[in-house]
Amino acid sequence: MKKEKYKILLVDDEEDILELLQYNLEKEGYDVKTATNGKLAIEKAKSFMPNLILLDIMMPVMDGIECCRRIKEMPELAKIFVLFLTARTEEYSEVAAFDAGADDYIPKPIKPKALISRVQAIFKRDKKLDEDKQMTFKIMDLTIDRNEYLVYKGDKPIVLPRKEFELLYFLASNPNKVYNRDELLQKVWGTDVYVLSRTVDVHIRKVRERIGEDYITTIKGVGYKFETED
Q1: pLDDT digit string (tens) for 98-153?
Q2: In angstroms, rounded to a whole number, what is the distance separating the alpha carbons of residues 103 and 34?
Q3: For residue 199, which of 121, 101, 58, 108 has the smallest C-alpha distance?
Q4: Are 168 and 151 in contact (CB under 8 A)?
Q5: pLDDT digits (tens, 9 = 90+) for 78-102
Q6: Which fold has domain 3-130?
Q7: Whole-angstrom Cα distance, residue 96 to residue 204?
Q8: Which is higher by pLDDT, 130 or 224?
Q9: What 8-state DSSP symbol labels residue 87?
Q10: What gap in Å lies between CA 149 and CA 161, rounded to an integer?
Q11: Do 125 and 104 touch, CB atoms closer than 8 A?
């Protein structure tokens, strides 16, 4: 897919930041729209259907964490990439962002060229995953459909946010093999994304909440595996 076909929604309450980022992203050929708070972001996301949302945390009306959480709960929006771009650098803010379903977390300030590089890396990696992996497969009583980013447990569809889906997809594609946190970060988040290792624990917990406890096993002191009966 050519990069000019990608759509990006910028969300920040600082107009100068919006103008700077919009100018630089549009110069790279992206289709860009903006919003100044989380509530407006959700409304625009529904109509614009962006491929990526760049989201600040501290905003009026609705903050970025709540905005991300609501987006990831909506089946029609759940697979949109959400990248936090924020001046909040505390560890608890980063953990809260990933707990809400974020795909990446970048502290401000960041130079436009560096941000564009991160955005390009996200799209490039997503395209490669789509090209390299089998689209649909069954394991135990789960059917994992990469075309629609849906998991079926029997006949029941389960919507997972993108990173939770990718994590489940990777583990289920490699059943009964144990992966530590660093390996999962590299395989699922990629080398261009810098996140805390405990992010993996957060996403494992959320996957279990959605599909049940009987699939992903914790190997104490080592990591995780998708365990089958075979």
Answers
A1: 888 888 888 888 888 889 988 888 887 766 555 555 578 899 999 998 877 789 99
A2: 19
A3: 101
A4: yes
A5: 889 999 988 877 777 888 888 888 8
A6: Rossmann fold (3.40.50)
A7: 15
A8: 224
A9: S
A10: 8
A11: no
